[in-house]
Amino acid sequence: MLTLRLYMAQRITALLMAPLVLGHLAVMIYAIQGGLTAAEILGRTQGSGVWFLFYGTFVLAVSVHGAIGLRVIAHEWGGLRGVVLEGVMWGAGLGLFALGARAVWAVTFA
Q: What is the recorded function of this protein according to its Swiss-Prot or TrEMBL entry (predicted)?
C-alpha cells in the first residue's frame, strides 16, 4: 500500500511540476530577452505573495518528487531497505525543501 501511495504522490507532483517548469522557463526567457538585471528581477519579486505561492508550490512538489525518486534509486541500486531507506527519503526531501524554501524566502521576502 505504501508503494502505491508513493507512486501516486510522485505522479501527482509531476503533474504539478510540469506547468510550473514551463512557467519558470517562460519567466526566465522573458527576463533575459528583456535585459532585466538581477536587481530588477528582485525588485519585481520582493513582497509578492503570488511569486511566493508559485515558487513555494514548486519547491514543495520538487521536494516530494525528488525524495521519492531517490528512495527508488537507493533501493534498486544501493539495496537499502527498511528504516535506512525511509531515512534516506525523508532526509533528501527535508533537505531539498529547506534549500528551496530558503531560496524562495530570499527572492520574495528577504
A: Membrane-anchoring subunit of succinate dehydrogenase (SDH).
For the chain, the farthest-separated pair of C-alpha atoms sits apart, in whole angstroms, at 51
What cell numbers appear for 33 in the block? Answer: 530577452
The tens digit of pLDDT for each residue in 69-109 reads 999 999 999 999 999 999 999 999 999 999 999 999 999 99
H-type helices in the chain, by residue range? Answer: 2-33, 38-45, 49-76, 82-108
Give the range of the structural domain holding residue 97, as residue numbers without chain letter.
2-108
In this prediction the pTM is 0.91
Query: For the purposes of burial, counting CB atoms within 10 Å of the CB of 34, is it exposed (0-12), middle (13-18) or buried (19 or more)?
Result: exposed
